[in-house]
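Entry 12.
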Amino acid sequence: MSIAALRQQLAEIVEGLRPAMPGLATGLAALDAILPDHGLPRGRLTEITGAPGSGRTTIARQLVAATLHTGWWVAYVDADRTLAPRDWAALGVYDGLWVVRPDDPARGAWCADVLLRSGAFGLVVLDGAPALSRVVAVRLVRLARASDAALVLLAPDGQHAGVAGTLQLRVQRARVKQRVDALDLTARLTGHARVASPAPTRPTSRRLMITIEKGGPAQRVEVECAGDGARHGTDHAARRIAHCVREDPQVPDRRGVARRDPNRRSERAGSARVALGRAATRPA
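Predicted 3D structure (tokens):
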């Protein structure tokens, strides 16, 4: 066994022996109740996996909202550039949300590295990045531990970083029992055409099934989240979310320094902004 591999194993053992910190509430009471830390672990990696359209982003949006509500700053790395600001308009009332969209999905992990090093964020989400190597994943977890931040990776089914102590949550759409329309049943029995009903509207909530696959007792819980159709935010709020988007880390942000707060998170965020602007011009 090489010295590098031995050091990595020893580091993972040390990480596992450290006392757990209070979890970061997800905003979903049923899920928080069954999680080991009553929330997502801080200083560790949480992987949220699922098939396309399973609700991974919906869960992430719920988590971001709950974190912002408690006063923590949040950085969301949209590596594949698929986030729609309109769907996140309800979060436009918060000042502590950053959305970083790298010009190349492969630089998503690098952006997460810079954001974690700043120490400004209580939650860093990496969405749509290519599969992380174990070395990169371990480095990000160490940075999360140092900054007391929760690190969340959104990935498709079967894609795991292979880091010890990772919490793995798998998201699926909950099965909805089919209900027979009384008018439709009467029409079938009598042979008469039923009166056309108004077109169904998009649901304002989604029921999802979450399974703990690793990091705690194997359990399943059904939760209800605001769906993509629940866009209660105004156009002004949607524009505020769009203003939070850093379209490309190579372009320095000239929109001014964020409002300072007692915990100096905004000052650290300003440092992260400078780092994203400068270091991005260097070779990866």
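Annotation: DSSP finds eight helices and nine strands in the chain. The first helix runs from residue 3 to 17.
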